[in-house]
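Reading a protein record of the kind used here takes little practice once its layout is understood. An example of such a record is reproduced below.
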Amino acid sequence: MKMMVMLEGGQLITQVSGQGKVPLFATSKTKFFPKVVDAEIEFGKDEKGAVTYLVLHQGGQDVKAQRTSDSVVTRKEITISPKILAQYIGTYEMRPGFDLVITLEGDQLVSQATGQGKMPLFAESETKFFPKVIDAEIEFLKDDKGAVTHLILHQGEAEIKASRKWSARSS
C-alpha cells in the first residue's frame, strides 16, 4: 500500500493505493486530518529539516511510512476515437462471480465491477486506461488477429488478468 501526498489548487491531498483522493486540513504546521475518516497524518523531519516520513494515526494505531519519492506520478489523458474504444466493450471475468463490465457512454469508456458503481476510464495510450478516482490502470490485451481477449487490472502490487467473456453477439 502506498500513500501519495500532493498539492492540488493550494489544497494538500492524499490518496492511498486503490482509493480516491481525500483533502487534508491542517491542525498545525506538521499535522493534518481528512474530514471523511477519523485519522491524522503527521509529517516528520530529519535533522536537516527535510520531511522524510509521515505517521498515520488511525484506530489507535500509529503507522510510520518513509518518504520514497519527491514526486507523484501524474497521468496524461489522451483522446482515442470511439471506434477504437468500442473494441474494448464487453464483460471480463476477474474471478468466478466477479466481473468487470466495460461500456461506452458517448465518447467515454466506463467500467463497472460487480456490485459497484460506474467509473469513467481515461486513455493513457491506445490500450492503457486509468480511472481518476482510484490509483489503478486497466490494460487491454489483443491476440495476433487484433481481437481484444483479456484485460489486466494493475492496482497497487496486484495484477489481475481477466478473460473476456464471449457471447454470440460479441463474436
